[in-house]
Design a protein that fits this description.
Strand order of the largest sheet: 3-2-1-4-5
Number of strands: 7
Number of helices: 15
CATH class of the largest domain: Alpha Beta
Largest sheet: 5 strands, mixed
Low-confidence stretches: 121-125, 178-188, 192-199
Order of helices and strands: HHHHHHHHHEEEHEHHEHHHEE
Number of domains: 2
CATH superfamily of the largest domain: Ribonuclease H-like superfamily/Ribonuclease H
Distance between the termini: 34 Å
CATH topology of the largest domain: Nucleotidyltransferase, domain 5
Mean pLDDT: 78
């Protein structure tokens, strides 16, 4: 494919060069014919008429080119390829010097040299150094189509996990190509006030701080089902997403106890001030494993922001891609697949593109070098059939 494009570019450049040489030859032939006529034994009046007609034709072409430039509303008019070729041929025909093109046609000298520079054969066949390889651009589009809710930073983080270095701005340019590349306007960051209290609680190691919350989805779009979500703050690993048969403390205790038996108890656990988390049944379970409870602020959005963000990911990036949730068994299967996808396949923004399991088990992959511009041959893909999402990772880090 690349050889065909290079051949076409070389052929077009040769055709343009042939047209310019033909115009130059016709201009010289015109001059010779005019000189030959001037030497002929005819009246001076007829000689003057011939030269005036030629000069009039030259002026008419020059006026036509100037009118095309003045009709454009932009400060820097964009000439089409046909208009550029017409201007270059006019210069070669009437032997207008390049240094006087601004005086005759109103075009900058740098613009003319840029047009001539694009005609050169070697520049058409040479690939720029900073051009992104085609296979990487194809992989960016493949990852974006498989994960339609991802932004440019998350796509760049996914490529970094595949040992490919690509800046987020380059991902944006690839996804916006053929549209004009305009950088998005950056929103000014809000400054923290002196009395503002940070809403997130720091975690220094795995199982240091957990948070627990419940969210609600609709079965068949009608009947609500509650889901208990538990997450580790240090690694952002989802410890459990368990559908509940009822929003009572007994089912929540069962979900939390299953997570503790699987991963071990945390030191602190954060929850909102709902009655299921402030009751005696939940407190007895925390006392059993010597877990210190910590409560979020009442009525303040973001007091348990880490778990709320996971709830949004669960509902809008995962469950929203399923047409109907057919029952609690179907929802249980979806939640199990969500834990696998979220912990093992999905790059996390807070973790600088790493996956939660990489941080939780201290198995962080090396960051790619800036010159890593080739697609590895050991990429592993996993297609989650029910949500139609594809995960990518290297086989050696699986």
């Amino acid at each position: 494919m690349t050889n065909n494009i290079d051949t076409i570019n070389a052929a077009v450049a040769l055709i343009v060069k042939a047209a310019i040489i033909a115009c130059r030859f016709s201009g010289r032939a015109r001059k010779r014919s005019l000189k030959r006529l001037s030497k002929m034994d005819i009246d001076e009046k007829d000689k003057e008429i011939i030269f005036l007609r030629d000069k009039n034709y030259q002026q008419q072409m020059q006026i036509t080119i100037l009118q095309k430039g003045t009709r454009k509303k932009q400060k820097n008019p964009r000439y089409t390829i046909r208009e550029r070729l017409f201007i270059i041929c006019h210069m070669e025909t009437f032997q207008i010097p390049k240094c006087r093109i601004t005086e005759h046609l109103g075009i900058a000298i740098s613009t003319l040299y840029r047009w001539l520079h694009k005609i050169q054969d070697q520049n058409n066949s040479r690939i720029p150094v900073n051009k992104t390889p085609t296979e990487i651009a194809s992989l960016v589009w493949e990852i974006t189509r498989a994960n339609v809710s991802w932004g440019r930073v998350r796509v760049a983080n996914q490529l970094a996990l595949l040992n490919i270095f690509l800046a987020a701005s380059t991902v944006r340019n690839i996804l916006k190509e053929p549209k004009p590349r305009k950088s998005p306007k950056s929103t000014p960051k809000q400054k923290k006030t002196e009395g503002q209290v940070p809403r997130s609680i720091p975690a220094w190691y795995p199982n240091h701080v957990w948070s627990i919350d419940t969210t609600m989805v609709n079965c068949w779009g009608l009947w609500p089902i509650h889901i208990c979500v538990i997450i580790d703050h240090f690694s952002r690993k989802v410890m459990a997403t368990t559908p509940l048969e009822g929003p009572n403390a007994g089912w929540i205790n069962n979900a939390l106890e299953s997570a503790i038996e699987k991963y071990g108890p945390p030191k602190h656990i954060i929850s909102d001030q709902a009655h299921v988390f402030t009751g005696e049944v939940f407190a007895e379970l925390l006392d059993k494993y010597k877990i210190k409870p910590r409560l979020g602020a009442i009525g303040k959005h973001g007091s348990i922001a880490v778990t709320e963000r996971v709830n949004k990911t669960l509902k809008y990036e995962w469950l929203k891609r399923v047409a109907f949730i057919k029952g609690i068994d179907h929802l249980t299967d979806l939640c199990k697949e969500f834990e696998i996808w979220y912990n093992n396949w999905r790059p996390h923004m807070t973790l600088d593109g790493l996956r939660p399991d990489d941080v939780y088990f201290n198995n962080k992959p090396n960051k790619p070098e800036r010159n890593a511009k080739t697609v590895p041959c050991n990429i592993e893909q996993h297609f989650f059939r029910q949500t139609r999402i594809t995960g990518y990772r290297l086989k050696k880090t699986a």
